[in-house]
């Protein structure tokens, strides 16, 4: 009796649990279904909104930087180094493009060369740029100056201070240090300069070449001769601009680009092979009377030191001087000391209200010392 009752009770209880579980399972399935439908609906809505806000773009591998800059966040299967290289690498500007950017309306550029020793802070390059800034009529000429850098450090410093800088590649010689006059590296540097200037002429540009130890105090263009292919400064000028026996100095030259000047520069550069121990200026003195110069027909003129002076022969008139060169001076420290004196004299001159009758320069001083 009790056993049967117990069994009946147990069956009833088991049946009730089964109904409860079945009922619970059915309810769970419905809830899951509702949740899935709601999730799908929300996902679809989000996708619609995302596409509206960020339209899909095709990846242009040739213009990767523009894609990276766009507002959408496309998924790129590229490694970070590839992206970084594409974005940060700037194309190197060719020498011809730099010359074109710096040239005047008549295709003339002002060129100087620079190495690390002369590019250091408070060294010659700083004085060179300062002279343009305080000279009369020279400020606007700075935009026509192209600085040819002979080593990476010089290029780095130049790029911080000036617009038109070009690094000359040279694997044979390290030009970064101070090159003492007439040493083997100095000779290589001078001949590399002549080679470069030949290329400038071949590209169709006229140029003024100026050493960086020349202070530009006035605009020299009005003092250039109107009819000379090749015009050169002098250590000593004897009064006749046509006389090739003036003691020339290659630190300041004005050259017009034409067939005569191009052939002359090529001949000048080739002549180094006949005089391997001489620099460009001394070789010029050896070849200037050769018959081939007459055959070329190049017209030469030589500048008066009144306008283009230097420590070999200072300008006699500060009211007329255009440039002052630290020539006849060996040693960077001596040049720096005496060129600072030149700029001091010039600043004092600019502060005067009256015309200067007699010119007395404070320099050279240290450059006169042995």
The major sheet is characterized as: 7 strands, mixed
- Average the pLDDT over all residues and give the rounded result: 82
Shape: globular
Structural class, from secondary structure content? Answer: alpha/beta
Strand portion? 5-15%
What is the chain-wise order of helices and strands?
Answer: HHHHEHHEHEHEEEEHHHEEEH
* Total E-strand runs: 10
The termini sit apart by 139 Å
Number of helices: 12
Helix content: 40-55%
- Spatial order of the strands forming the largest sheet: 3-2-1-4-7-6-8
**Rg to the nearest angstrom?**
39 Å
Poorly predicted runs of 5 or more residues: 1-27, 48-90
Could you describe the 3D structure shown?
This protein is of the alpha/beta class and 370 residues long. 45% of the residues lie in helices and 13% in strands. It is built from 12 helices and 10 strands. The strands form 2 sheets. The chain has a 7-stranded mixed sheet with strand order 3-2-1-4-7-6-8. Helix 7 links the parallel strand 2 and strand 3. Helix 8 packs antiparallel against helix 9. The radius of gyration is 39 Å and the shape is globular. The N terminus is likely disordered. This is Nucleotide-diphospho-sugar transferase domain-containing protein. Keywords: Membrane, Transmembrane, Transmembrane helix. It holds the Pfam family Nucleotid_trans. InterPro entries: At1g28695/At4g15970-like, Nucl-diP-sugar_transferase.
């Amino acid at each position: 009796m009790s056993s049967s009752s117990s069994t009946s009770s147990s069956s009833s209880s088991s049946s009730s649990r089964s109904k409860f579980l079945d009922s619970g399972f059915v309810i769970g399935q419905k809830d899951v279904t509702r949740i899935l439908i709601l999730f799908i609906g929300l996902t679809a809505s989000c996708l619609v909104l995302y596409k509206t806000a960020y339209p899909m773009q095709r990846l242009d591998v040739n213009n990767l930087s523009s894609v990276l800059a766009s507002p959408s966040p496309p998924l790129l299967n590229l490694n970070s180094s590839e992206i970084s290289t594409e974005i940060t690498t700037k194309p190197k500007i060719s020498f011809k493009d730099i010359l074109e950017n710096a040239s005047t309306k008549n295709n003339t550029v002002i060129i100087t060369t620079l190495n690390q020793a002369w590019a250091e802070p408070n060294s010659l390059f700083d004085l060179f740029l300062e002279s343009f800034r305080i000279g009369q009529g020279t400020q606007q000429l700075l935009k026509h100056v192209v600085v040819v850098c002979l080593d990476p450090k010089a290029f780095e410093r130049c790029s911080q201070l000036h617009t038109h800088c070009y690094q000359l590649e040279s694997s044979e010689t390290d030009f970064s240090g101070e090159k003492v006059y007439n040493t083997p590296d100095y000779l290589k540097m001078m001949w590399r300069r002549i080679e470069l200037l030949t290329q400038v002429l071949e590209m169709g540009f006229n140029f003024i070449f100026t050493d960086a130890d020349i202070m530009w105090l006035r605009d020299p263009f009005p003092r250039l001769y109107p009819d000379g292919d090749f015009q050169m400064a002098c250590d000593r000028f004897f009064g006749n601009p046509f006389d090739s026996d003036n003691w020339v100095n290659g630190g300041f030259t004005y050259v017009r680009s034409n067939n005569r000047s191009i052939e002359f520069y090529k001949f000048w550069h080739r002549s180094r092979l006949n005089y391997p121990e001489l620099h460009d200026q001394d070789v010029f003195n050896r070849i200037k009377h050769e018959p081939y110069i007459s055959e070329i027909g190049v017209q030469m003129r030589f500048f008066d030191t009144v306008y283009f002076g230097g420590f070999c022969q200072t300008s006699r008139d500060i009211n007329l001087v255009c440039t002052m060169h630290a020539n006849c001076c060996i040693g960077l420290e001596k040049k720096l000391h005496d060129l600072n004196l030149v700029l001091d004299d010039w600043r004092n001159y600019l502060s005067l209200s009256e015309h200067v009758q007699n010119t007395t320069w404070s320099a050279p001083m240290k450059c006169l010392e042995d």
